[in-house]
Structures are given as structure tokens and as C-alpha cells.
Amino acid sequence: MRTSYFREVWNIAKPLVLQYLFESVLYVADTLFVAGLGKIALDAVATALYLCYLIQYPMNACLLSSFTTYVSQAWGSRDLNSIVDMFGKAFTTALLAGSLSATISYTVSRYLIEFVYPSAAVVKLGLEYFKYVVLAFPGSSLFITYMAFLYGIGRTRDATICWIMSDIINIILDPLLIYTLRMGVVGAALAFVISIYSVIPFFHIILRRYVPLRIRIRRPDMIVLKLVKNVGLPISVERAVVSLLYTSYAAIIGRYGVEAYTAYQLGLRIESFIYMPLLAYRDTANILIGQRVGAERIEELPEILRTCELLAVATVVVASVLTLGFTLLLMNIMLPELFEHIQTLVLLYLLFASLSDVGLALKLSCIGAYQAIGKTLISTVVDIASMGLLRVVPSLAFYMMRLPILAVWLTMSIDTATCGLALTLLFVKRLYREPVKFVKSCMSEVSS
Q1: Tens digits of residue pLDDT in 103-149
Q2: Which of 219, 268, 316, 414 stands the most exposed, by the fewest C-beta atoms within 10 Å?
Q3: How much is the pLDDT for 69?
Q4: What is the predicted pLDDT for the residue at 50?
């Protein structure tokens, strides 16, 4: 690994790692605040969030991958006019996408919450929470679009500042609305909504420092449609299908009872300290490889991807050790009552998750590289096939065979590790050996 590549990758990834770590702090803080309302409230909010994963997050993934790819290539070729022109179309696209996502989510909310956790008390609180969270969806899509433009021009530090501002506002408002104003789960939802919309003006001010933008409502044209079709749509479909598989996986765990489901939800949020920073290397690979493609320096792609993968794996090792230590601190000193009766289950879940996140590190770095060159179909197919065949189907079989919950969690490790290794083997062969020929063939497909 050349020192210059290491320094460049780390300079881009460092603020993103901080950004995603702070998002993990928000997840855990939000979980602890809601947990103070009782286990029913905790399960209700966690279950309602699967609607976000299923509909809104795939929509945002489409916007982020599409516009980051476009802007990074335009920035690499120093084409500011194209970036300015795209912004007006992206602004309109984001508002339309967020509004559509909100409408669909609200329409199907009851059915999906009942599917994941068929408890009357959980469904009632989950719906009460979700009907306010859905108000944030148009703003969330705008938020992500601004992030994509800042990522594309390599200003990850500025994007991180805005992201962390939003998280801090959310954390401050949570106890105020939940407990001081006694709004319960509705307070948690409104804290999220306010935190999203309050930072959008700051995004615009910061982006204008680098690109002469102004807000103009423009209709999405064929360029946007092609970009979404060839880059964003496969990612969006992958997120939607994988989210549905995650929802099914959570529903299977919910059939094991309250303790298993609560342990899974707590473990998942604590695990975010491990897997969330890995998203930084996906975004870094997307940014740097996209810029290299725009500048026609394709021969540098293999080394950039290799550097992202190595740093991502190193991050998993460090984050796993620190997270397990933090969990023991929570269990034994800070909040022992929260983990009553489920300490062992949470620790076992985190051990399985830590092992699987090494594969996740490879997988996300490869996905970022292929987003940058517009080749997202392979990662989509492999990810969906792996999760369906190696996680959800075996988990359902294990549940029907009355095997313990540990067997279900083992499928998670097998799925993620297998998917990461498969993507690496598939991508490395052509990208490392014939980068110029391969990237040009991918770009010709995207432009068609």
C-alpha cells in the first residue's frame, strides 16, 4: 500500500468515520431514552423503524449513490457547470422522492408493523410513533442529496459537521420532548423530524462556498432518469429487498419471545459502533474512484480499492474490541437494569456480529467502488441471494425445527462473511487485472 494512497483515503474517510460513529451514538442514546419508557415502547419504536429501512432508506440510497457518482465524475473533470445544472434537478427529485416514500410508508404502516411483531400494544405505540416520523421523509431526501453533492466534491468534513449538528439536536431534544414535555414516543419522533429540517439551510450555505448554487426548481430530465436507472435503481432495489429480508429476519426472531427480540434490538444498536464506520469506506471508495474516472486516471483504481478494504478491516478489529468493552460497562455499571435477564444473549449476538463484520468491510468497499463506475447490478444480486439463501431461509427452518436463537444468529455471520468474500473474489479478478478495459466497458453500459 503506497503511503500517498493511505493518506488520501484516510483524509477522506476520517471525517466520515466520525460522522457514522456519531450516528451510532445517536442510535444508542435514542434507544436508551426510549427504553426508559419500558420494553413495549422500545420494541414499538424499533419495529416501526423497519418501515424506514424498507421504504425511505432505499429511496435515500438511490439518491446518494446516483448524485455522488455524477458529481464526483464532474468534479474530477472540473466541470462545475454540470454540477450547478444538476443541483436544481436533484433538489426537485429529492422532494418528489421523499413525498412519495412518505405516502407509501404511511399507507402500509399498520400491516408491516403487525407482520414484524404481532402484539397489540407494540402495534399501537409503533403506529403512534411512525405517523410523526414520516413527516421527516421529504427533508431526509433533501438532506441526503446535499450530502451527495458534498461527498462528490470531496468535502466530507463539511458534510460530517452538518450530520453531527443534526445528531446533537436530536439528542438534546429527545429527553426534553420525551420526559420534560411528557410526549413519550411521539417526542422521540418529533426530535428526529426537527433535527433533519433544522440543518438543511446550513448544508446549502456550506455547499455554496465551493459551487455557485442557487435553489431553482427544475424538472428531472433524461440525464437524471438515466443516472437513477443505471446507478441508483439497482442500489435502491437492493436496499428495498434486503430491508424486506431484514424485516423477515426480525419477524422470525420476534417469534422467539420478548427476551430474544429485545436482546436483538439492543445488540443491533450497540453493534452500530462496529458496522456504521464501515460505511465511511464505501463512501470513500465511491468518491475517490469516481473522481479518478472523471480525470481518466483509471490505472489508480485497484490501489485505492485495496487501501479502502485494508483500512475497513482494521476498523472492524479495533471497533469490535472497544464495543465489547463498552457493552460490559453498560451491563455491569451504567445500566444493569436495562439488560436484566438478557446479558448473555446480547453478548452472544455481538460476538457473532463482530465475526461477520469482517466480511461486511470487504463487501461495502467493493460496493462503493462499483457505484463509482456505475456497475451496481452484480453487488445487488450477490447481496440479495446471500441474505435470502444463507440467512432468512435457514433461520425460518431453524425456528420451525425449534432450534435455539443462537442458530438464527449464526446464519447472520455466515451470510455476511460469505457475501463479502464472494464480492471481493468477483470484483478483484477483473478490476485488479484489467482496470482500464473493465471500467470503460462499465461506463459504456451506464451511458447507454
Answers
A1: 998 898 888 888 877 788 888 999 999 999 999 999 999 999 999 99
A2: 219
A3: 84
A4: 73
CA dist 370 and 442 (Å) reads 9
Q: Which pLDDT score, from 0 to 100, does residue 326 have?
A: 80
- Matching residue, cell 451514538: 25
> What count of other Cβ atoms lies within 10 Å of the Cβ of residue 28?
17
Distance CA 279, CA 361 (A): 8
Q: HEC states along the chain? A: CCHHHHHHHHHHHHHHHHHHHHHHHHHHHHHHHHHCCCHHHHHHHHHHHHHHHHHHHHHHHHHHHHHHHHHHHHHHCCCHHHHHHHHHHHHHHHHHHHHHHHHHHHHHHHHHHHHHCCCHHHHHHHHHHHHHHHHHHHHHHHHHHHHHHHHHCCCHHHHHHHHHHHHHHHHHHHHHHHHHCCCCHHHHHHHHHHHHHHCHHHHHHHHCCCCCCCCCCCCCCHHHHHHHHHHHHHHHHHHHHHHHHHHHHHHHHHCCCHHHHHHHHHHHHHHHHHHCCHHHHHHHHHHHHHHHHHCCCHHHHHHHHHHHHHHHHHHHHHHHHHHHHHHHHHHHHHCCCCCCCCHHHHHHHHHHHHHHHHHHHHHHHHHHHHHHCCCCHHHHHHHHHHHHHHHHHHHHHHHHCCCCHHHHHHHHHHHHHHHHHHHHHHHHHHHHHCHHHHHHHHHHHHHC
Which of 265, 273, 256, 257 is closest to 18 using CA atoms? 273
The Cβ of residue 257 has, within 10 Å, a number of other Cβ atoms equal to 11
Half-sphere exposure of 426 (CA within 13 A, CB side): 21
pLDDT < 50 stretches in the chain: 446
On whether the CB atoms of residues 151 and 71 are closer than 8 A, the answer is: yes
Beta-carbon contacts of residue 111 (< 8 Å; ≥ 6 apart): none
CA dihedral 206, 211, 215, 218 (to 10 degrees): -140
pLDDT recorded at residue 340: 65
At residue 394, the pLDDT reads 95
CA 364 to chain centre: 10
For cell 478490476, name the residue: 431
Report the alpha-carbon angle 396-402-405, nearest 5.
70
Of 196, 209, 219, 205, give the one whose Cα is nearest residue 90.
219
- Spatial separation of the C-alpha atoms in residues 280 and 20, rounded to whole Å: 7
pLDDT value, residue 2: 61
